[in-house]
Specification:
Elements lengths: L1 H33 L7 H23 L9 H9 L3 H32 L7 H24 L1 E9 L4 E9 L2 H35 L2 H41 L2 H25 L1 H4 L1
Antiparallel strand pairs: 1-2
Helix pairs in contact: 1-2, 1-8, 2-4, 2-5, 2-8, 4-5, 4-6, 4-7, 6-7, 7-8
Protein name: G protein-coupled receptor
Keywords: Membrane, Transmembrane, Transmembrane helix
InterPro entries: Nematode_SR-like
Length: about 280
């Protein structure tokens, strides 16, 4: 009974959060892409790719997995099952999640090189396109695993309140799934290291700057701090989501399995809200 109530509450909470976030994200991300001076900076474009990927990952997860336990959507998921579209929707979910994970690392690395080399811009178009291409390539490993070595389907149950589906996964080859988990763990650790170094270098640079430089660079430091905080908070929530996912799958902990959507929602939505809260120039 507790798990059922928890599942409905988390679904309602994340769904409402998505409904609030999506229109605001479209507005502010459009500003970063089309309005100067943000549109001239490829770092912001990478942030947009990361933020949209997070939101799309959460949205597709909601549609593919989370709503299956609600009898009112039974006919929709029956249609997906009959048309063999379950794996297709699952692929989109994991693909967007992979894009979000890898672009977060590239964003942190870009900010680190900007601070260390004291570059002005972060307007590196080559770095942007390279980051996106590598993120797509690395995320494609999940697609190979899901499409060729995993069978995703819905299993129907009826507990008295009407028929409903629950997602099920049959893994044919464990090695690729394990490899993707290891790759995710490595990228997550690398993101943590880069973010910590970024915070240290920014703090040292600010502490050694003279007063004139501090006055001239005050706004820039605030912007950098905002991006650092955004990266760190986003990383923390994604790490919680990843650990919860591993515990649910490898140790068969029921509560962790149900809580996966809550942690995914937090990991997906916090990058946008942290960016808005801690980067004041974007709100103007």
């Amino acid at each position: 009974k507790f798990i059922e109530i928890f599942d409905k509450c988390q679904t309602l909470f994340v769904t409402i959060s998505l409904c609030i976030t999506i229109p605001l994200a479209v507005f502010f991300y459009s500003k970063l892409v089309f309005v100067k001076p943000f549109s001239e900076n490829y770092t912001f474009k990478l942030i947009v790719v990361n933020g949209l990927s997070n939101i799309l990952s959460c949205t597709t997860y909601l549609i593919t997995y989370q709503m299956t336990s609600f009898p009112m959507f039974h006919s929709f998921y029956k249609f997906l099952q009959e048309k063999s579209l379950v794996s297709v929707f699952g692929i989109f979910t994991h693909f967007f999640d992979g894009i979000a994970l890898h672009t977060a690392l590239f964003i942190a690395y870009n900010r680190l090189t900007t601070i260390v080399k004291m570059r002005e811009g972060g307007n590196d178009a080559l770095f942007f396109f390279t980051s996106v291409i590598f993120s797509i390539f690395l995320s494609s490993l999940r697609i190979v695993d899901l499409y060729f070595f995993t069978n995703q389907y819905y299993k129907e149950y009826d507990f008295g309140g009407g028929p409903m589906f629950f997602p099920r996964i049959e893994i044919r080859v464990d090695i690729l799934r394990t490899a993707t988990d290891v790759e995710i763990a490595i990228v997550s650790c690398a993101t943590l290291v880069v973010n910590v170094l970024l915070a240290v270098f920014l703090a040292r640079r600010q502490s050694f700057a003279d007063r004139a430089e501090r006055r001239n660079a005050c706004c820039r430091y605030k912007a950098e701090r905002g991006l650092i905080i955004t990266s760190l908070v986003s990383y923390i929530f994604y790490t919680i989501y990843f650990i919860n996912n591993v515990v649910a799958r490898y140790f068969d902990v029921t509560l962790c399995g149900y809580a996966q959507f809550l942690f995914l929602g937090l990991a997906s939505l916090t990058p946008f809200w942290c960016l808005i809260i801690f980067s004041s120039s974007i709100r103007r």
